[in-house]
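tool=predict chain=A
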Amino acid sequence: SIKPSKLHMLCAQLFACAAVQASGSVLEIAVGTGLNIPLYDWSAITSFTGIDLSQGMLAQVAQRATTTIPEANITSPTKQHSTIDSSSDTQAIAHGSGAAGSTVGVRQGVPVLLLQASVNSLPLPDNSYDVVLDTFSLCVFDQPEAALSEMVRVLKPGGRLMLLEHSRSDNPLLGAYQGATRSWVAPISKGCDWGQDVPGMVSRLPGMFVSSQQRHLAGTLVSIIATKLGSP
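tool=predict ok
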């Protein structure tokens, strides 16, 4: 078995490897408390948006950004952001100029925006981001394929979908065990469905090309980079 300390070290290394590759306009899904914030190469990022359902989580992200990112100017979300039309308000959010329910910060000219929203219906325009990143959240989404479709929708042509996720192992015996126990494991692991086939779901996304896929921990963790086809 793998000791918790070694597991945590591996996860930290995978987190860092994913975050450091992000560049341009970046959207992080289920940003949580902002654990990835210190890991980004901010010199390579032109804008950053973080999405989460929890306003409390977003407040922690704002605090983390304030303490870990020099010159950050963070304000707290005022109310839940639900829907935005495709008018200039949506464009304003995409470019970090702010809207109701948002948290806006600037670090050396890089807009940092946090939004309280559902991943199944992102209040963001099509073709907006160079990178969409999600780490260990897909397993708790009630509609993971719908969430992936939304991530692809907001990616620019040529943009990269970067995932680090729990997944069903490619080892037949272990994968079968995960499939048989997924309904038992979820209630004791914050709703995580560790038996879903993440590579399979990504492979079915239209207009996406998987450029990198690596498995870890006997195949139960997977890191994937997929590119949206089309000219930038």
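The CA atoms of residues 183 and 193 lie 8 Å apart. Strands lie at 24-29, 45-52, 102-107, 110-116, 129-135, 155-166, 208-216, 221-228.
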